[in-house]
Write a structure and sequence with these properties.
This protein is an alpha+beta fold and 408 residues long. Helices cover 40% and strands 15% of the residues. Among the domains are: 108 residues, Arc Repressor Mutant, subunit A, CATH 1.10.10; 96 residues, no CATH class. It is globular, with a radius of gyration of 22 Å. The N and C termini lie far apart (63 Å). GO terms for molecular function: DNA binding.
């Protein structure tokens, strides 16, 4: 007797997205930690993204709450982990992320740094590297926090330089401190502290951290299963390839982790086959219609490799940069329908690329109202964003063509 697979259509996936990614107003969170847990981590390559992504999902958006979690309480931890990308994850999840992904990435960082510095910097070997690292960590513990320049004043060896890409058009002379500090951070031994400027600043101080090797972390297979379970609960149903891409694992490791979760195969729209947790097969009611303005590299926008069910492929060239980083996006009920930007005078502007029903718009529409329910909701969200962002100016680190155009 044949057994048909459960089916979860695109409407069901979008309903889950609005609720579980905390984007529908009724599901917004009270604290930043709730947002990070719901998304299994916030993208942190661009400092502004952490604040914008969290505040888009907070019932009372406030950058101070994000700073509280990152710097005052340490309940969010920045880690170089999935896809060798910087994330801010909940402190309780950090051991799982360390064992499942970050430790392997840190090992590669360590090997690369040893090769880079011992082959390119005269007078450096592994013994000297270890000594410089030990003195750097001691200086940081003594000061509590310090910039790279302040550490170099205490440990002059950090000022040594070497030439990278010699003979190339992009040849450069760099200090060894940048690579050494990056490696220590990748291992969890140091961590980023409060930025020297506002919350959009990339200039920061370092603080002592906890090496991943010292965390009470589960074995790697168990950690991968735990991370896969959490990801499916937030992003499922999805394809095996989606999880493989999101984590950066091998296909074998991905399949083993999914098997350990008890995930079952489901049919998706367009003939695709996905996986879902066994307790997530029943229909999910769609939340009330919602709109959201999400930042560049938002975790939801970057949550899946296959995006056709929430993003029209025709709009990819306008919303992504050339290396695959998504810019600021406008969402309506589980679909990306446009993009937004902030101008130099602080105005939040946006353009719809499709209407609320998914029909492409030939004319250019900016955030000045509109007659559709979607346009009205986007206008309200733009006002909400402008209200809390105040005098702060945000320019994404990775800029999409549409964001550049709108910001002029």
């Amino acid at each position: 007797m044949s057994h048909s697979r459960p089916r979860i259509d695109t409407a069901g996936r979008r309903a889950r997205l609005g609720r579980r990614q905390l984007l529908a107003p009724a599901y917004r969170a009270a604290r930043t930690e709730e947002v990070a847990d719901a998304l299994v981590g916030l993208h942190a390559s661009d400092p502004a993204t952490v604040h914008l992504a969290a505040c888009a999902r907070l019932a009372a958006p406030d950058p101070a709450d994000v700073e509280r979690a990152l710097y005052d309480e340490g309940s969010l931890v920045r880690m170089l982990c999935m896809r060798r990308t910087l994330f801010a994850v909940g402190a309780a999840l950090a051991p799982v992320v360390a064992s499942s992904t970050a430790q392997a990435i840190a090992a590669k960082e360590r090997a690369g740094t040893v090769k880079w510095i011992t082959e390119g910097a005269p007078g450096w070997d592994e013994r000297r590297l270890a000594d410089v690292e030990a003195r750097t960590l001691a200086a940081l513990r003594a000061h509590g926090e310090a910039t790279a320049a302040e550490l170099a004043a205490e440990v002059p060896d950090l000022r040594d330089t070497l030439v990278v890409s010699p003979g190339k058009p992009y040849q450069a002379t760099v200090a060894v401190s940048s690579r050494i500090l990056r490696t220590l951070a990748a291992e969890g031994r140091i961590r980023r502290g409060r930025p020297r400027g506002g919350w959009t600043s990339s200039t920061f101080r370092w603080r002592p951290g906890t090496a991943f090797a010292d965390l009470a972390a589960p074995p790697a297979p168990e950690a991968r299963a735990d991370l896969a379970r959490r990801w499916l609960a937030s992003y499922g149903p999805a394809t095996v390839e989606d999880l493989k891409w999101w984590t950066g694992w091998t296909l074998t490791a991905t399949r083993q982790a999914l098997a350990a979760t008890g995930a079952v195969e489901v049919d998706l729209d367009d003939g695709a086959r996905g996986v879902a947790l066994p307790d997530d097969l029943e229909p999910v009611a769609a939340p009330e219609p919602w709109a959201a303005l999400l930042p560049a590299l938002d975790p939801t926008a970057m949550g899946w490799k296959t995006r056709d069910w929430y993003l029209d492929p025709e709009h990819v060239p306008q919303l992504f940069d050339r290396t695959g980083n998504i810019g600021p996006t406008v969402w309506w009920c589980g679909r990306i329908i446009g993009g937004w930007a902030q101008r130099a005078d602080g105005e939040i502007v946006w353009r719809l690329l499709t209407d609320g029903g998914g029909t492409s718009l030939p004319e250019r529409r900016r955030g000045s109202g509109g007659d559709s329910e979607a346009a009205a909701a986007v206008t309200a969200e733009a006002a909400r964003l402008a209200a809390w962002i105040g005098d702060v100016r945000v320019t994404p680190r990775f800029r999409s063509p549409l964001e550049r155009e709108l910001s002029r």
